[in-house]
Amino acid sequence: MSSPNNGVFLFVFFVFLSFRKVPESSPQSREPWKRLVSVVTTIPFFSSQALLEFEERQGAVVSKKMSRREIQRFPTKNFCSATNSGNTQCQICFCEYADKDKLRMLPCFHDYHVQCIDRWLKDNSTCPICRANLADGDSLAPPTL
Prior knowledge:
mainly alpha; Herpes Virus-1; 2 domains; 3-stranded antiparallel beta sheet; 7% strand; elongated; RING_finger_E3_ligase; signal; zinc-finger
């Protein structure tokens, strides 16, 4: 016995599969939505036209890595508990900052241990908290008044 919820579950499952990481050299990494469309269109109540329109609205999902040079353009500071009233914990490793820990400051004003955020940015180009696109420096510039 099949219910409409089974189709929704399958759709969500295939969307999840389409976002898994694949090697950049793989042809699959360039066209994740086409893989999804080819699988999901076998489900009778999804039209391929509707899925292609969805892809156009959403855009392709591509994870851009950042180079060492791009990462190092973000400033660093040493943590000082006496003068810091903000965040006292790295949101990547969840360890409390200790005095003199070296933190990297992102343009979105989030800070992390240098080792933690550098490792993150080697595979991602967004802030782990707010998902600001760090690869596009212009989008993070403060607004002009």
